[in-house]
Each structure stands twice: as C-alpha cells, then as structure tokens.
Amino acid sequence: MAGVESAWKEIVARYSPLVFSVCHRCGVDGFDAEDVVGNVWLRLIANLAKIREPKALPKWLMTTARRECVVLLRDKGRQIPKEAIDQTAPGTVEVFLLDAERSDAVRRALAELSESDRALLELLFSDPPTPYVAISVHLGIPVGAIGPTRQRCLARMRRIPSVAALLHDCQARTR
Description:
By secondary structure, the chain is an all-alpha fold. It has two domains: 2-88, Orthogonal Bundle (Rna Polymerase Sigma Factor, Chain: A), CATH 1.10.1740.10; 95-174, Orthogonal Bundle (Arc Repressor Mutant, subunit A), CATH 1.10.10. It contains nine helices and no strands. The mean pLDDT is 82.
C-alpha cells in the first residue's frame, strides 16, 4: 500500500502545476482553482482504469481541468475565455513537462550541494539578483572571489547525475 501512496503523491506533485496552469489560462484562480484541481484528482481516481497509456495522462489531465473550469465558470455565471475552450496548442504538454523536469533536476541538485554552495547560488539567482557587495557581506567572502566560486559551484552542480543527464539530453537534441 505504501508504494501506491508514494506513486500517487509523485503523480500529484508532478502534474499539479500543469493542472493549475490550465486553471489560470481559463481565468480560474484562488480557491476556485483549488476546487477544480481537487475535482480533477477525483476524476482521475474514478477513471484510472480507463487510462491505458501513461504518456496520455498529461493531456487527459489538461482536458479534464479545462472541462472542470468550464463547468465552474458556467455555474458561477462568469464568461469563459475562448482560448480556454480551444484545444491546447501542439507541444504545450511536452514543453511543460520538460520545464518541470528541468526544475525538478535543479531542485534535487541544489539539495545535494553544500550549504555554502547553495547559499551562494540562491543569492546569485534571486529575483532581483543580490549585488556582489551584499553577497560578500552576507557570506563573508571577498567580492573578487564570488565569480570564480560561482563557476566552481556550477561545475559541481553539472556533475550531479540529475543535471548531467539533463545536460546530456539537451546536447543530444541540439545535434
């Protein structure tokens, strides 16, 4: 039973951003979006036996989310944006999944780095970026050492298996 629960949690974690993005495109946000997402997961449980091809799951979730949004908006008497009803542009699911896979690989890689490497990268890639002087004060390293230290951090990150595999895939696609 623990394996089933673990698999379910993985599916929810992986695809919730996709379902929420459909809600957002349909103009459904906040608690309404959470209701729609909950309904999508309930529908998935009810229809799990009907999904024979695992690769079809993202498209099924998007279609189900769009339908749930339409129902919610109709019931609330709100306007339904035309683009929400139209079919999703080709490649949207693949682009979303690749972005999610990249984000997941980066998160896992950051977790494997030392605390000092992670702190430096988080400051460098914050939005807006933290100035070098502030990084120097915060981490206690000279301003001139930040660039070289960043390069060494990124090199260590590239050697982490999840990032190395992702980089290998990206290089293979560009050939």
